User: Fold these one by one.
Assistant:
Number 1:
Amino acid sequence: MKNNNNPIALSVVGSHKNHEAVERPRGAGATGMAVLDRDYRIIWCNSCAQAHLGFAANGARHRLCGDSQLGAYLAAGDFSKPLQVEMSGGVLLAIELLPFIDSQWLLLSRDVSASAKLEAMRRNFVADTSHELRAPLCVLTGLVETMSELGPDPAREQEYLDLMGEQCKRMRNIVDGLLELSTLEAAPEARVEERINVTSLLSRLRAEAEVLSGGRHRIVLDAQPGFDLLGTERDITSALSNLVANAIRYTQPGGEVRIVWHASSRGAEFIVEDTGVGIDAKHIPLLTERFYRVQKASQGRRGTGGAGLGLAIVKAALTKHQAALEISSEAGKGSRFIARFPAQRVTPSASASSPVSSLAA
Ligand SMILES: Nc1ncnc2c1ncn2[C@@H]1O[C@H](COP(=O)(O)OP(=O)(O)O)[C@@H](O)[C@H]1O
Ligand SMILES: [Mg+2]
């Protein structure tokens, strides 16, 4: 019978030979163990079970704190499935009861908070990803059905094919972005042995920006020569080109995009500034979340809707290099994205005639 208001009191009838102080279990994988008599009184328990379940080993009778669920579980007497109990501080415990010698019971407790959190993240991830893929898939399905119902209509065929191509591209962007993100998140910290030639990286970025802009923006490159970055070139290129692509994408024709690279008091900074549409303050803390877009792709002008993964990729790539991303913006006025690299990631360029000695400090 379940009675959450009247939990079973477990009493200590024997005590552990060491009456040690209750300590937190060492390591997430630690298992709490207790031997209970046939009436569920504690005969013995280890320190991990004490910490998990909140009872002290001083021999006195103790009610388990937060044990109403455990009380009901014991009263019900069905131990075929483990019990999950949320303890104070958001700790999630899995408790199992196994038959032991002489009609006693062995109680096992495990802290499953981390795996429950991971499982929740996995579920969110699957839900978000399917949601994002569903929209282009639905449009594509609709177009295929319309085309097959209408039969051959050369006048509209090209328009339909263009729309279908757009949706395929959207899906491909989502899949490519997710793959890149998962590779970055799984990878260890970037090695400091690889030198990135920032001058050549910046000139490639500028060329990319010119192509994306198609001459509709003024693109300014302001790079302080003499020092390079240490890290993984592919990741840094990806982060910086995402920032530059955003600046072009979210800036009206006639606007300006500035790409700046300079030494700072603590290392070096890469800045991308634009005079574009800007971002309302309430969105700024959320921008680096996967799939977050200020204007949803479905509401956006054709061609502006990205997958919403760009800034998540930027953040993951920068984190691998101990770099921080700072975003400042004002709606209607423009935005500034600063990637701050610490001094240990900055080195004088191989060709520099005057090494930037202050950076090595
Ligand atoms: N330079 C910028 N100016 C204005 N808004 C921006 C800028 N960069 C990013 N954003 C906003 O942040 C959102 C997230 O950016 P991002 O992760 O790159 O996704 P998207 O694929 O939509 O570009 C964008 O949808 C856009 O609303
Ligand atoms: Mg983007």
Number 2:
Amino acid sequence: MRLAGQYARNLGGSKALVVSDPGVVAAGWAQQVFASVERAGLASILYTQVTPNPRMDEAAAGAAVYAEEGCDIIIAVGGGSAMDCAKCIGLLAANGGDLRDLVGVDNVRSPMPPAICIPTTAGTSADLSQFATIVDSEIKRKLLIVSKTVVPDLSLIDPATLTTMDAFLTACTGLDALVHALEAYVSLGHSPLTDVHALEAMRLVSSNFLQSIAEPQNLEYRTNMMLGSLEAGLAFSNASLGATHAMAHSVGGLLDLPHGQCNAMFLSGVIDFNYGHAEERYRSAAIAMGLEVSGLSSSEIRKRLVAEIARLRDAAGLGGALSRCGIHRTEVHELAEITLHDPCVVTNPRRPGQRDIEVIYEEAL
Ligand SMILES: [Fe+2]
């Protein structure tokens, strides 16, 4: 946090757009970044019109401020919302036009301006991922921009920022990190390098997740969760994700629910669906999560892994059903259609059809 200004100067910046959200400003973190930028002799302006699932109009308004103020570097301080919005502001600053033209994999023409991310949650990994997620409110969909050009130039990591998260945000973001690790590990795009990070992320997150909720000021748990999130990010930014994320994006776009909460509703169903296509991988994942699997049959390991996911989810307070969030059976068909167009579904270890996804949604109702 104290080094933000120095690094902004090193990257050639003279005026920084600091992108944050009202909660992070209230916690005092944005002011620390501001002070650091000032000490380094750079000018800066704060932009905080960022909602939990950032929208295209918020990014457009931020890009207008960036241009009007003559900014030449972006510093995001916050969770996935602030960082995703900052990435989209940078993309608009560099490419102009409409973010919709950049959606999908490798459709970005010009890289964004220099960008520094300072995460204040442990889960999103937007600070090192090649993903930027933005909501198109007109069609109520989360759009994914996947491109190496949205990997920030620098991430500054300080686990102390996590101590101001409340229990629900800790739960949502921590569970997201676990899903990143699990989906990256069984992804069709996995590699020996991403495997190392994914397994270590599972180990760190599963052994510190509930503890960090129970003891929010404990820096050891917070540090381990931050490390787990980073390792999960290194894994999924390169291996990509799977059907859980594709389904969570569909619901998150429609209902404006926290991303981690959406993931929590589908992870067990997706593991059940995938299991026979990645048995050995799920066995290794179960071991990384601390489960005793020796002597168990494949079907017993599957049950134990799904039960452990459910235990973590419920203990973290994320056990609600989809119907209680306002989704009805009549919407399942359309949600499944949207899911099948999400880039994350491509690397799921088992290729799902429309009915497969509908069944997982229906089981979560
Ligand atoms: Fe995620």
